[in-house]
Specification:
- The chain is mostly beta strands and 145 residues long.
- The chain has one domain (8-143).
- It has two helices and eight strands; from the N terminus they run αββββαββββ.
């Protein structure tokens, strides 16, 4: 799953997010005036366009807002992993900020190691990170109590 077409493109707008992932921290943009969080990264502040957004480290805690189990036809690189899950996580700091990822049993585990029927909307999760290559470390999610 390391084919370049499947990996995110790093640019000047999202580079701080990916640098944080490589460092093992989750960073999200924030409006410095209102304090509101913004994701995905964008070059302009959504609420105060004349004031650039700043980057803030967040807890990496949240809850599962949505979940799907992709079905064939799948991209070839993902076919061997099927069935697997894709979740949307609402962050603890602001549940309107949501990140897409996969639920795994532990850091470094494959994305197909949790039975889809065992995933519950609303379940508490914590971010973990998986190094894909020297540039990309992906956020994944594990269940918490």
């Amino acid at each position: 799953m390391t084919e370049s077409t499947l990996l995110p493109h790093i640019d000047e707008t999202n580079a701080p997010f990916w640098a944080g992932c490589r460092e093992g921290v989750l960073r999200i943009q924030q409006c410095p005036q209102s304090g509101r969080l913004m994701f995905p990264p964008r070059p302009l502040n959504s609420w105060e366009p004349r004031t650039p957004p700043v980057w803030r480290e967040v807890s990496g805690r949240g809850h599962i807002w949505s979940v799907i189990e992709p079905h064939p036809p799948l991209m070839l690189n993902f076919s061997e992993l099927a069935p697997y899950n894709a979740i949307i996580v609402a962050l603890e700091e602001d549940e309107t900020v949501r990140l897409v990822g996969n639920l795994v049993p532990a850091a470094g585990a494959a994305i197909n190691r949790i039975d889809f029927d065992d995933i519950a909307i609303g379940a508490a999760v914590q971010v973990v990170f998986e190094k894909i290559d020297d540039d990309i470390t992906l956020p994944r999610w594990v269940l918490t109590n």
